[in-house]
Specification:
The protein is α/β, with parallel strands linked by helices. The protein is built from 15 helices and five strands. It folds into two domains: 265 residues, Rossmann fold, CATH 3.40.50.620; 37 residues. Pfam families: Asn_synthase. GO terms for molecular function: asparagine synthase (glutamine-hydrolyzing) activity; ATP binding. Keywords: ATP-binding, Nucleotide-binding.
């Protein structure tokens, strides 16, 4: 077991305390380690803490968050998503977050739902833990070189796509988002740790440093909690897949059709058709690094490739 990093532990506690002391706060809670630790620490300092969980009626996250609320003694609210409201939510999220990216929408529906339902002006999030404490499943089994690339690209997506989108969503609802794990004081302490020290050997050893911190703070039960990615734990992915299938569409195609209607008549970049493809994450990271240095987006590269195929009448 890794030894607890005292200064990092204290910086996380201080990040929560500074932002919530004496205030009424909401927590976007999935019931796992990340949001669970934020919730437990907020209870120490905030005037009131209410947990909000987005999910279908039988979602994994809903059961986990309800159980967590009982264990730490906090009020909990279930923000239910279903066939009857998810299309409207996707449409509003696309406009509020200024995004039509299907992947982004799939995991931001949860935060969107919480901001929509929360009565409190301040919303705490456990966002950033996967990227900075090495909780992503793709980190397991990667070579050291591949691991370093995956970590860097995960952090890049978080900071350049996810967080800006979430802040726009929060502004749409008049909320202030707090990210304890992304505070400068916390990230600077994380940066002092060699990322290879935090590299997970298997699925159960992910976020080992944060688990040790939770134990050291007296929340050992949080370190043992199982977690799924938000889009799966909330049930949103299965729900969207089912609706897409009913309409004879692919997942991305279905979300794109909703966004197309949402942005109709709005000032938005010229939109094109979706290309759905599975790409090796290392190949993707290396290619996009080269494209980025040339000032080119992946969509532009795909367009160039397709134009070349049309021009030459063949792929190679």
């Amino acid at each position: 077991m890794m030894t607890c990093h005292t200064e990092l532990r204290d910086s996380i506690v201080e990040a929560v305390k500074t932002n919530v002391e004496g205030k009424d706060v909401a927590v976007a809670c999935s019931g796992g380690l990340d949001s669970g630790l934020v919730s437990a620490l907020a209870k120490r300092y905030a005037r009131s803490v209410t947990l909000y969980t987005c999910g279908t009626s039988n979602a994994f996250d809903v059961a986990m968050a309800k159980d967590l609320s009982e264990k730490i003694g906090l009020t909990w609210n279930h923000v239910q998503i279903s066939k009857s409201n998810i299309c409207d939510m996707i449409s509003e999220l696309a406009l509020a977050g200024d995004t039509d990216d299907a992947f982004t929408i799939s995991y931001e529906l949860q935060l969107f739902s919480v901001c929509m339902a929360a009565k409190e002006d301040i919303v705490l999030s456990g966002q950033g833990s996967d990227e900075y404490f090495m909780g992503c499943a793709k980190f397991v089994g990667a070579s050291d070189d591949e691991y370093a690339i995956l970590v860097e690209t995960a952090k890049q997506r978080l900071n350049e796509i996810s967080v800006p989108c979430e802040k726009k969503i929060a502004k749409h609802f008049g909320k202030t988002l707090i990210y304890p794990y992304l505070e400068d004081s916390v990230r600077s302490r994380i940066d002092d740790i060699d990322i290879l020290e935090m590299k997970p050997a298997d699925m159960s050893s992910r976020k080992s440093v944060l688990k040790d911190i939770a134990r050291d703070l007296g929340y050992g039960f949080l370190a043992e909690r199982v977690k799924k990615s938000s889009q799966y734990g909330s049930g949103t992915t299965d729900l969207i897949r089912g609706l897409a299938k009913e309409r004879g569409m692919e997942y991305n195609e279905f979300i794109d059709s909703i966004c197309e209607d949402a942005f109709k008549g709005k000032s938005k970049m010229i939109r094109g058709s979706i290309v759905t493809a599975r790409v090796d994450p290392i190949v993707k990271a290396k290619a996009e690094d080269i494209l980025g240095r040339q000032g080119m987006k992946p969509s532009e590269a795909i367009n160039v490739l397709y134009e070349r195929i049309i021009r030459d009448g063949k792929f190679l």
